[in-house]
Specification:
Blueprint lengths: L7 E5 L20 E2 L2 E2 H11 L4 E6 L4 H6 L4 H9 L3 H8 L8 E5 L6 H6 L2 H4 L4 E4 L3 E4 L4 H12 L2 E7 L9 E5 L6 E9 L10 E9 L3 H7 L10 H10 L4 E5 L3 E4 L3 H13 L5 H14 L1
Parallel strand pairs: 1-4, 1-6, 4-5, 8-12
Antiparallel strand pairs: 2-3, 6-11, 7-13, 8-11, 9-10, 10-12
Bound molecules: uridine 5'-triphosphate (UTP).
Length: 294
């Protein structure tokens, strides 16, 4: 049987971003920059590099800036052209999504991640699709979603990205249940949202990258609120596993930063800047004395 790769990706970006107030009072948290690129652009580029052609943003009111970022700014383009600033034009061109390939729909109330994904049901139709949570920014040689696409090409079904965490932190994540942990591609037996360390079935947490079958929409349609009073994606996935749908967890190569959290966001800025030939040396020079002072 030929397994067709997903071509559509959902980006749930309708959250409130309260952990970054007051910065996010007016500006969406997905526009906060890692070095000089908005958090959301990292996820869009990762998806594009993995073969995604259709980008579905689940937004909320006052988040129009996120659509504008991937549009053409004719005025700026014309000024840069006149001034022969070709390097800057190239930087801008990397932000364009082709006409007709950015689809935006709204989640009217922040009812949870599961509900945000459900808002894409009519756009996805009856195809497998990817979900990327832009808060999770991943520094890797090969994009994380591309690594997952390879697992999908081999096994089909549903694929989740996973990483080991200290068990004491399990109540911050979805935690997977696996029969054994002796490979990087793990058939899953279950998944639990934010369990206490005593109840966590493993130390493997779900990271915000998913390849899913459209069957998940039927479950999300009927689902009641779970942990935190929100409609949880994890609960729908747990039910699908129970119904016998194949799920594999992919232990990916790379370092994940939780950019929805201040320490994760600041660490990502430092890690990505240290990768840049133009910034690495001057940044080291600037931060080493600061660290010594503490
Ligand atoms: P978070 O749990 O980080 O919530 O959402 P948040 O509202 O964005 O941020 P804080 O906690 O108030 O600071 C995880 C991801 O799910 C999306 C968010 O935009 C983020 O990408 N999300 C969450 C939605 O799209 N809708 C929701 O109802 C909830």
């Amino acid at each position: 049987m030929k397994i067709c790769p997903p071509r559509k990706a959902v980006f749930p970006i309708a959250g409130l971003g309260t952990r970054f107030l007051p910065a996010t009072k007016v500006m969406p948290k997905e526009m906060l920059p890692i070095v000089d690129k908005p958090v959301l652009q990292y996820a869009v580029e990762e998806a594009r590099d993995a073969g995604i052609t259709d980008f579905i943003f689940i937004t909320s009111h006052d988040k129009g800036m996120l659509e504008d970022h991937f549009d053409v700014n004719h005025e700026l383009h014309a000024i840069l052209e006149k001034r022969k600033r070709f390097a800057d034009i190239k930087v801008l061109e990397a932000t364009f999504l082709p006409a007709g390939h950015l689809i935006v729909t709204r989640q009217y109330e922040p009812l949870g991640l599961g509900h945000a994904v459900w808002c894409a049901r009519r756009i996805i139709g009856d195809e497998p699709f990817a979900v990327l949570l832009p808060d999770d920014v991943i520094l890797s040689k090969k994009p994380c979603l591309a690594q997952m696409m390879e697992v999908y090409a081999k096994h089909g079904g549903n694929v989740l990205a996973t990483m080991p965490i200290p068990k004491s932190q399990s109540s911050r994540y979805g935690i997977i249940d696996v029969a054994s942990e002796d490979s990087d591609i793990l058939p899953m037996r279950g998944i639990v949202e934010k369990p206490t360390p005593e109840k966590a079935p493993s130390n493997l947490a779900v990271v915000g990258r998913y390849i899913l079958q459209p069957d998940v929409f039927d479950l999300l349609e009927k689902q009641k609120c779970g942990a935190g009073g929100e409609i949880q994606l994890t609960d729908a996935l747990a039910t699908l596993i129970g119904m016998g749908q194949p799920f594999h967890a992919c232990r990916f190569e790379g370092q994940r930063f939780d950019c929805g959290d201040k320490v994760g966001f600041l660490s990502a800025n430092i890690a990505f800047a240290l990768q840049r030939p133009d910034l690495s040396a001057p940044l080291r020079e600037a931060i080493l004395p600061l660290l010594k002072e503490i």
